């Protein structure tokens, strides 16, 4: 890595990550950073992890999860030592820079896919006409796009693409991941909306002035929020504001917040039809499942705007992706991959990544897919960890996956959660029996094999 | 080709919008009647409200109307979305402040008016007063446009607030009151529009009197589905994908019935197609798309949410949902249900959008809903609620059951004879309607008229004259001669008379002459006792007995009867004459008539049985012997369809040159036509004029004529169908009528069916009578038809009542009076036409001791 490359990557970091990074470099603890930014500690860690990833310092799959922060510090010590504090400089000195460079060279060519893909990644496979439709839609005044897909389908990547596209068209973008928000904030509408306004202001480099506009004595939280946007934020910016909200399904667990917040978004969208100020606000939201809480019937549902469903990869798209990994696989090998993984974007990316590293052959990958050597071991264990918190769900999933029946039936709430996790999907025509029941099938054979064990 | 005419740029921009309001310039906006109504009402300064089911286009209508109003230049519109304020921990103060905030921003006053300070300064005032001041001091002062319209959307959200919003409604009332007091008050610049998915009932329940008044002064704007004529703007997007976009749109509307959300959605699906819909494949393609992309797995395809919200509105509360489902089930099964605006279930169903009111009836709003929320779905949901579905007999089954029931009852009543006189009169009417037939060329009637009587002394024709007549006739070779004059004793007293009588008796012994007598029995009174002339062989004798119905009308002919000592023949005069006549033509007739039917030439004659046709009264006397129905030869009354000469004309010398021809090879009947002889009988033709009776000699002529023309000319005899065939005919009309009525729910068609069916029955039965000689069960058919339709119209109302009996606040069901009135009118017009009145007034008595009389005179 040379200085130019370093500068390029550093400049390309999103504002939120940069903010967190600068504080980490100064030696602040994650806890204090989280507090001052109003996000979870895990959020901070995630930011830093992404920074580490951006610099090509991602863990190798063979390694255990070790923090690469010292290596990061070492990089900065090399190129921008003024950003470091004494404490962090000390850590940096202990690291062998040559080794770091070696690591970077190993990973910068091909990244391990996780989280969103970088904007310019050659491994982003467009899924027409989804992108085109969204590009066209997002520039409409008062636009609202709702992207719905299970986890690891590429929602965030798509949203980033759209945001980036809008940015090139002269709009200002704000990206908020609700996954970074502390649970307590998500449970309290007023706190959440304050956080929301604060984050949007900061990302726009506008000084948050909540105390001037937020007055619960007079207005409800919703009205305060509207007022803040209408009177302060929106007039401050000259162009359109593209507001991307990632993982909004996290709000679904609380009915009142869900209802009030989405009601607010709906209202803003409606205002955008007639009021000049609100025409400037363009919204993108992503969520991994429909809300399973019953909303108040006396309010219009959040069914406005352009709904976008992200489809799985098709065979052609997988072949295309393999080409980008510079892989030449036989038709039989593609069949094997697809039989195991279906069109699951994340699992496919993982598979192709590992194959391209020559660490594993297709056959090996398929044969070891559910044992300890599996490249999906972490991924699957993550699912198990999550499911263990909800034993009933795990139980019904296991029993459903073990049956010989082609299609399974879950109750609504279970179905929503499992679909959210991407473990199951609605049975399509090929699998559907004559009855019109709501039937599901495992998302891919990998899951069936693993969870039926 | 339509597609070629499109401007390329437009095609790409054209968008269907599914869900949410359409931007004011959306090309796929469909302008409806409601658009103009709302706009015009607001221009005319009226308070308006749009309460409708979800996703019927309320918000789009609002956006469009706001734009149209503002385009006038003199109007400025404000918009409040009542959901903006949220609901969690919301206080009344916050709610109203939120409204003020929204209004300030909506009217773009925030630069000139700092509302927060203003609001805080007035915190000691009541909310109602603050609102009033805001209107007066701020809105009406700061806005210079002459007209201000405030649209308040999502009004239904106030129903779930935990505080009342009376002040808002008071404010609206206050504004309109001010304006009523003084037309020039500044308040007349201000108007309100309420929009939402609420029933007026719900709002009134919460804000009783205020809301009542508000809704009373307001104009309700009802949003209906798109009609084909209104939907022109939707065609643009389809024209790329179809050769005949208009036909495609028509097919789409067949599925959506113009429901805006679904219509836009289906159009969008078509718009996104990769192929072109070819001409002729529109219906199939649209159906396939709708089924595969909306109906199948609908919960999965329901993005953005629409069908789920419809479902949730039905199922949201456990208490009311079972009732709603039941009512919906009835609508689904019956196709429709009479709408009742006072019934909460009906209103709720309508508000869900699932059901619409059309021409006073509730119907499922469109085919898509009908396919998704189908019978199985309702049963499944009811099952979840542990509520049994309402027991409903399908209407067609009701129709069949009622038809069969009514027919059975009517046939049963007929069996008792209660309808007999009525049916007989109806038969008479039909008989009278027949066109005249030609004169029978086989028969010559020698009439003894008043002038002939006068020559012979006025009481009876003399033996001498009779003898002369016969001798004169014999000269010209008639086939047979029947003397319908009783000559058992000499007419003139004294020796001369006796001589004349004996001379006549000699003449009567000739083989081709038949003499008449009357069979008497215990019941026969003395005055009608006419024995046979002495010395005449039985084979040259025929009895003249005829039999009447209860109304004294002669409709039957006796061929054979038990003989008596003084009239020793079993065969009637007419039958004897026929036999003799046929014998000359080498056609044999059976000696004895024992079986219920016999064959003459190629004609089969069946004897009349009890319970055939309209004859249902079983009085053994009435049906004694061998009887058949008498099919009178039709003629223009009072003429008779037979050639007749008087005795005087016959005996005239020189004889009229035409006479020999009239006699040769004919059957000659000699009898009285003189009124004074009293040998006169009531016939079906008499019912038109009761005084017009027929002389006996013509009766015999009719009897002979009907059998001979049946054998020789193929003219039908009058017959009746067997009882079960009759019953089937009686069943056919109510059955078809009932089923048609159910199939065509349309009122006009119902009326047409009710009006025309009796006509059709009449015409059909008349034709059958005319050409087939069949006496059809006219009256039973009418009765069963009318009674069945009457019941079918009443029954659903009765069953509905029973269904709702547990449910309070039911207005009295309105019976379909119009249909019933129609039926009654028909009952009487048809009744009058078929002689109901006659039979009630005239032929009432059915049991006279003697129904037999001689047809002839001494």
Strand order of the largest sheet of chain A: 2-3-4-1-5
The secondary-structure class of chain B comes to: alpha/beta
The radius of gyration over CA of chain B amounts to: 44 Å
Order of helices and strands of chain A: HHHHHHHHEHEHHHHEHHEEHHHHHHHEEH
Q: What is the strand tally of chain B?
A: 24
State the end-to-end CA separation of chain B: 96 Å
Tell me the overall shape of chain B. Answer: rod-shaped
How would you summarize the topology of this molecule?
The complex is a heterodimer of chains A (453) and B (858).
Chain A: H1 3-11, H2 15-25, H3 30-37, H4 41-54, H5 69-79, H6 86-93, H7 97-108, H8 130-138, E1 144-148, H9 155-168, E2 172-177, H10 183-186, H11 189-203, H12 210-213, H13 221-236, E3 241-246, H14 255-274, H15 276-279, E4 281-287, E5 306-309, H16 315-324, H17 331-341, H18 345-356, H19 362-367, H20 377-388, H21 391-402, H22 412-421, E6 424-426, E7 440-442, H23 445-451
Chain B: H1 8-13, H2 33-43, E1 48-51, H3 58-71, E2 75-81, H4 92-106, H5 115-121, H6 127-142, E3 147-153, H7 166-181, E4 190-196, H8 200-206, H9 208-217, E5 219-220, H10 232-238, H11 245-256, H12 260-271, H13 282-295, H14 298-301, H15 307-315, H16 318-334, E6 337-338, H17 344-352, E7 355-358, E8 361-364, H18 367-372, H19 375-384, H20 395-415, H21 420-433, E9 443-448, H22 450-455, H23 463-475, E10 480-483, H24 494-508, E11 513-517, E12 541-543, E13 545-547, E14 556-560, H25 573-584, E15 597-600, E16 603-606, E17 626-629, E18 643-646, H26 647-651, H27 659-663, E19 667-672, E20 680-681, E21 694-695, H28 696-712, E22 719-720, H29 723-743, H30 747-772, E23 774-775, H31 778-804, H32 817-833, H33 836-841, E24 852-854
Parallel strand pairs in B: 1-4, 1-5, 2-3, 3-4, 9-18, 9-19, 10-11, 10-19, 11-12, 22-23
Antiparallel strand pairs in B: 6-8, 7-8, 13-24, 14-17, 15-16, 20-21
């Amino acid at each position: 890595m040379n200085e130019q490359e370093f500068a390029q990557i550093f400049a390309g970091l999103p504002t939120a990550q940069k903010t967190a990074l600068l504080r980490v470099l100064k030696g602040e603890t994650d806890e204090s950073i989280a507090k001052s930014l109003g996000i979870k500690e895990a959020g901070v860690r995630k930011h830093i992890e992404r920074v580490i990833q951006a610099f090509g310092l991602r863990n190798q799959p063979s390694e255990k999860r070790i923090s690469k922060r010292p290596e990061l510090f070492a990089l900065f010590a090399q190129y921008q030592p003024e950003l470091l504090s004494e404490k962090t400089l000390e850590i940096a000195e202990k690291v062998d820079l040559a080794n770091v460079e070696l690591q970077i060279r190993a990973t910068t060519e091909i990244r391990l896919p996780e989280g969103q893909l970088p904007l310019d990644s050659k491994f982003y496979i467009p899924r027409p006409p989804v992108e085109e439709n969204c590009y066209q839609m997002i520039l409409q005044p008062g636009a609202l796009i709702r992207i719905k897909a299970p986890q690891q389908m590429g929602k965030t990547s798509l949203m980033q693409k759209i945001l980036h596209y809008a940015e090139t068209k002269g709009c200002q973008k704000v990206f908020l991941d609700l996954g970074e928000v502390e649970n307590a904030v998500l449970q309290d509408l007023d706190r959440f909306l304050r956080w929301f306004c604060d984050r949007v202001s900061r990302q726009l480099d506008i000084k948050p002035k909540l105390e001037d506009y937020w007055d619960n004595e007079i207005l409800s939280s919703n009205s305060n929020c509207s007022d803040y946007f209408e009177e302060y934020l929106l007039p401050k910016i000259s162009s359109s504001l593209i507001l991307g909200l990632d993982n909004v399904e996290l709000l679904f667990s609380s009915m009142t917040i869900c209802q009030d917040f989405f009601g607010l978004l709906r209202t803003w969208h409606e205002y955008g039809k007639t009021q000049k100020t609100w025409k400037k606000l363009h919204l993108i939201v992503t969520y991994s499942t429909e809300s399973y809480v019953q909303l108040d019937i006396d309010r219009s549902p959040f069914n406005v705007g352009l709904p976008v469903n992200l489809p799985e990869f098709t065979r052609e798209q997988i072949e295309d992706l393999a080409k980008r990994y510079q892989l030449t696989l036989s038709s039989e090998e593609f069949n094997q991959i697809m039989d195991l993984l279906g069109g699951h974007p994340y699992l496919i990316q993982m598979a192709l990544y590992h194959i391209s590293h020559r660490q594993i052959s297709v056959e090996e990958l398929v044969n070891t897919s559910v044992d300890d050597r599996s490249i999906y071991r972490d991924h699957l264990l993550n699912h198990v960890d999550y499911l263990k918190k909800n034993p009933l769900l795990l139980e019904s999933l296991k029993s459903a996956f073990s049956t010989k029946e082609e299609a399974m039936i879950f109750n609504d709430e279970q179905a929503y959660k499992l679909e959210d996790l991407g473990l199951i999907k609605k049975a399509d025509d090929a699998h559907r029996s004559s009855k019109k029941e709501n039937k599901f099938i495992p998302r891919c054979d990998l899951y069936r094999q693993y969870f039926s064990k | 080709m339509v597609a070629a005419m499109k401007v390329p740029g437009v095609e790409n921009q054209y968008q269907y919008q599914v869900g949410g309001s359409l931007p004011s310039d959306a090309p796929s906006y469909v302008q409806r009647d409601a658009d103009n109504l709302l706009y015009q009402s607001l221009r005319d300064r009226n308070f308006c409200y749009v309460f409708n089911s979800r996703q019927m286009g309320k918000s789009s209508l609002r956006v469009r109307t706001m734009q149209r109003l503002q385009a006038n230049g003199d109007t400025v519109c404000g918009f409040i979305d009542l959901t903006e304020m949220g609901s969690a921990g919301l206080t009344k103060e916050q709610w109203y402040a939120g409204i003020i905030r929204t209004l300030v921003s909506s009217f773009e006053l925030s630069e000139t008016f700092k509302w927060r300070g203003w609001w805080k300064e007035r915190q000691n005032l009541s909310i109602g007063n603050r609102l009033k001041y805001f209107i007066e001091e701020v809105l009406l002062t700061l806005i210079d446009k002459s007209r201000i319209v405030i649209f308040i959307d999502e009004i239904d959200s106030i129903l779930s607030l935990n505080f009342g919003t009376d002040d808002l409604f008071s404010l609206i009332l206050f504004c309109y009151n001010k304006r009523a007091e003084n037309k020039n008050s500044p308040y007349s610049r201000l108007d309100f529009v309420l929009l939402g998915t609420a029933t007026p009932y719900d709002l009134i329940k919460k804000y009783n009197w205020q809301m009542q008044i508000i809704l009373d002064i307001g104009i309700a704007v009802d949003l209906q589905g798109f009609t084909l004529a209104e939907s022109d703007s939707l065609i643009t997007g389809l024209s790329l994908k179809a050769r005949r976009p208009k036909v495609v749109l028509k097919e789409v509307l067949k599925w959506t019935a113009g429901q805006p959300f679904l219509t836009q959605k289906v159009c969008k699906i078509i718009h996104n197609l990769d192929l072109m819909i070819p001409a002729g494949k529109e219906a199939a393609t649209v159906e396939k798309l709708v089924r595969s992309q909306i109906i199948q797995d609908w919960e999965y395809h329901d993005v953005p949410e629409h069908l789920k919200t419809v479902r949730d509105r039905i199922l949201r509360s456990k208490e009311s949902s079972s009732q709603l489902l039941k009512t919906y089930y009835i609508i689904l099964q019956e196709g429709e249900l009479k709408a009742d605006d006072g019934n909460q279930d009906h209103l709720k169903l309508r508000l869900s959008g699932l059901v619409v009111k059309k021409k006073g009836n509730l119907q499922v709003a469109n085919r898509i809903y009908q396919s998704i929320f189908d019978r199985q779905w309702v049963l499944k949901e009811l099952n979840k609620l542990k509520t049994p579905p309402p027991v409903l007999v399908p209407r067609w089954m009701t129709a069949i059951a009622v038809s069969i029931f009514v027919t059975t009852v009517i046939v049963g009543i007929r069996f008792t004879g209660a309808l007999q006189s009525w049916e007989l009169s109806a038969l008479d009417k039909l008989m009278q309607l027949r066109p005249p037939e030609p004169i029978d060329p086989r028969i010559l009637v020698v009439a003894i008229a008043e002038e002939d009587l006068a020559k012979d002394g006025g009481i009876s024709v003399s033996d001498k004259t009779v003898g002369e007549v016969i001798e004169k006739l014999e000269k010209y070779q008639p086939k047979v001669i029947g003397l319908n004059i009783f000559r058992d004793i000499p007419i003139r007293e004294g020796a001369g008379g006796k001589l004349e009588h004996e001379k006549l008796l000699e003449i009567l012994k000739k083989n081709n002459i038949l003499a008449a007598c009357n069979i008497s029995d215990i019941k026969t009174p003395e005055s009608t006792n006419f024995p046979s002339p002495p010395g005449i062989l039985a084979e040259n004798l025929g009895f003249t007995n005829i039999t009447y119905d209860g109304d004294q009308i002669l409709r039957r002919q006796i061929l054979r009867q038990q003989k008596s000592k003084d009239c020793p023949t079993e065969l009637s005069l007419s039958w004897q004459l026929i036999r003799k006549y046929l014998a000359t033509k080498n056609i044999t007739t059976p000696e004895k008539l024992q079986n219920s039917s016999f064959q003459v030439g190629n004609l089969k004659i069946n004897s009349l049985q009890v319970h055939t046709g309209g004859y249902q009264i079983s009085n053994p006397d009435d049906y004694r012997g061998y009887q058949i129905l008498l099919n009178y030869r039709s003629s223009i009354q009072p003429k008779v369809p037979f050639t007749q000469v008087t005795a005087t004309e016959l005996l005239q010398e020189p004889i009229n040159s035409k006479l020999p021809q009239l006699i040769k090879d004919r059957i000659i009947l000699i009898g009285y036509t003189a009124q004074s002889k009293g040998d006169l009988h009531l016939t079906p033709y008499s019912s038109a004029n009761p005084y017009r009776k027929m002389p006996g000699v013509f009766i015999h002529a009719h009897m002979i004529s009907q059998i001979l023309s049946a054998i020789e000319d193929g003219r039908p005899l009058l017959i009746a169908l067997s009882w079960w065939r009759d019953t089937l005919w009686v069943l056919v009309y109510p059955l078809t009528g009932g089923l048609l009525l159910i199939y065509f729910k349309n009122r006009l068609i119902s009326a047409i069916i009710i009006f025309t069916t009796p006509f059709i029955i009449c015409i059909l039965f008349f034709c059958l009578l005319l050409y087939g000689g069949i006496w059809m069960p006219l009256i039973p058919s009418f009765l069963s038809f009318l009674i069945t339709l009457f019941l079918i119209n009443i029954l659903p109302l009765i069953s509905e009542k029973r269904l709702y009996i547990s449910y309070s606040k039911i207005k009295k069901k309105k019976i379909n009076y119009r249909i019933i009135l129609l039926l009654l009118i028909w009952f009487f017009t048809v009744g009058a036409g078929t002689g109901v009145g006659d039979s009630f007034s005239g032929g009432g008595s059915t049991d006279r001791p003697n129904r037999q009389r001689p047809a002839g005179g001494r």
